Structures are given as C-alpha cells and as structure tokens.
Amino acid sequence: MMRRLEGDIVTPAGVVAGTLDIDGGRIAAITGTPIDAARAGQGGRPVLLPGFIDTHVHGGGGRDTMEGGDAIATIARRHARYGTTGFLATTMTAPLADIEAALKALGPVCRTRGAGQARLLGVHLEGPYISPDRLGAQPAHAIPATLAEVQRLNEFAPIKVLTLAPEMSGHLALIGPLRDAGIRVQIGHSAGAYEDGVAALQAGAAGFTHLFNAMTGLHHRQPGIVGAALAHGEHAELIPDLLHVHPGAIRAALRCIPGLFCVTDSTAAAGMPDGEYRLGEHRVQKCLGGVRLPDGTLAGSALTMDQALRNLVRTLGLDLVQASRRVSTVAADYLGLPDRGRLAPGAWADVVVMDAALVLQRVFVEGEDLDVVVDA
Question: Where is Zn(2+) annotated to bind (predicted)?
C-alpha cells in the first residue's frame, strides 16, 4: 500500500519542501522544491529526516544487552520511540561465557525485526579486548583477543564493530584479518601512545570508540590516542550528551575527522526515570541527566538520538542537513549500508518526523508507522 508523507524533507542533497512516497517498506519517490535548511519546519510544516543509526547501544527501557532473553526486544522498541531505526547491540566486558550467552540471544533478532522495533543491524563487541588500565565503566575482565575466539563469537551473531586496545600483545596482527572478515576494528579503551594509534590505523583499523573517553588524551608532547584520531582518523564515534565531551572538543573533532558520527552509548537508563539500573555486571545510577558508577565515573549515558540531534543543532550550531548526516548517514555509510540513513528513492523507509523545534512526532521503520509521540 502506497503511503504519502508531506513536509520539509532532509535529503542527501539538501532540504526539499514536498512529498515522500513509501511503497513496500521503501521510499518510492521524493518530489518538491529545494529550500534553505534554515527554513525547515516554518509555517508549521513537519520536518522529515532519515531514521537515526546508533552503533553503540548497551540498553534502554530498563533492560541491558547482556541480559539475553527478551531484553533486546525491549531495547529495540524503546530506542525506536526516540527515532533510532537501526542500531548495533553493544556488549560489555565480561567472562566469555556471558558474552557468548548474550550473542546467542542477539543472533535470531538480527535476522528478524519485530513489530514496533528498530532494526538490529548486528553487534558491537566493545569488550573484552581492551586495556585493563582504561576500563572506564567496563568490568575488570579484559583479555587479549585471538582470531579463533572472535570467529567463534561471530558465529552466534554478526559482529559488525569490535573495539580493541592496539597496544595489547598480538592485537595489531589481528586487525587486518578482522577487517578482511568484514569486522570494523575501532581503537578504544586504550592506554596506548600516539604511535600505537597510528600503527593500528595503518594496519586497517576503521575508527575510534567514543572519542576522547577511555583513551590517552592529547598533550602537545604526548599526543596519545586522541592525537592519532585527530591527526589521522577518517571515522570516529562520539557521545554528544554534553557530559562526556565538552562542546569545544566536539568542534575540534568535527573539523579534523570527516567521518565523525554520533552514538548514545546508552544504558538501560535510556528512556527511563532517575534510579538504579544494570550495566553488565555493574549497578549504575541515573541522576541529573547522566549515568554513573557509585564512585562517580560516567557509565554510558541516558542519551537518545533525537536529543543528540538537538544538541548538534542547538549547542554546536550545525545546520539541519549536517546534523542529520552525523546521526544517520555517516554511520550507515561506515557500516556499508547504502540503503539506510538517508531519504532517497530505493532506500528503506526509515523516517523520523519532527516539528520545527525538532521535537519528535512520528517514526517509520522500514515503512511501519510506529505513531509515537515523545516529549523532548
């Protein structure tokens, strides 16, 4: 059945005032007149944007990815209500048996999308192949990686992104084979030097995990992993909740890294009231917009992607087209998904409908109308 949406449509080429037709879960046509991005939503017209792509999701709606069972269905429904139409379920550092159990629960969901849910695009294996000296909020189960072990885990659910610390023994040699297997290696949770980051990029690493956080920082005589990212990185994820990274640092990254894209690093606390929640084997507290361990360490976030978009526009000053790219198109391209993260004929009909204030009104996932209204 054909469905037609009207409004100001954010396309890869700019904003078009007109109509978007959906047929069979995909975009059939976009017609209209180009307008300036600053005029989007004026006169009460809805704003249509590509659905958000989040490559770093630990949980939401009170559930955690590491729980297994039906937790991922709850997570997928909750994030869809905030405009995320595709995401990577992200693991925590844990004993391998726990990671294996979580991946076994995720595998079937990667193959079939449930009604009202965002599309699970695969897995981001954030642990356990990280530095024990840069755990951040990760539990203390870090170990070196082996290719055989990653290949075995990949049989349970498709690993699209894998975070590792390049300075750990044997890790540099793994990057090429993992890349050749279709796994994007991200540098993160690393105590390495600038030279370790550069060596990893030269070996085929694709990007950086939550840039600036849980990695060696930039000093003019010791540039660290952050320096390697800013000097040489083509892609990096960043958490724009304005708690994890100062707006000035975000602006520096935007100038330096062409493929910078936004993630939530969301926990079970996303879309939930203040209180205590699970993050892997940890208990974390949501309060004052942040999520923290008992010692005050930031532990993921309660960010949703619609708020990430608003932060890019309202605080960072990006225009709507550029902000949309950072929460949708760049991540889709990074994952090799040319039919997601953009409003264009032939792409999946993953559409977010907002008002002029960028308050979310409706969400379509692969043409399914979720008909949700969420307060900003």
Answer: 126, 189, 210
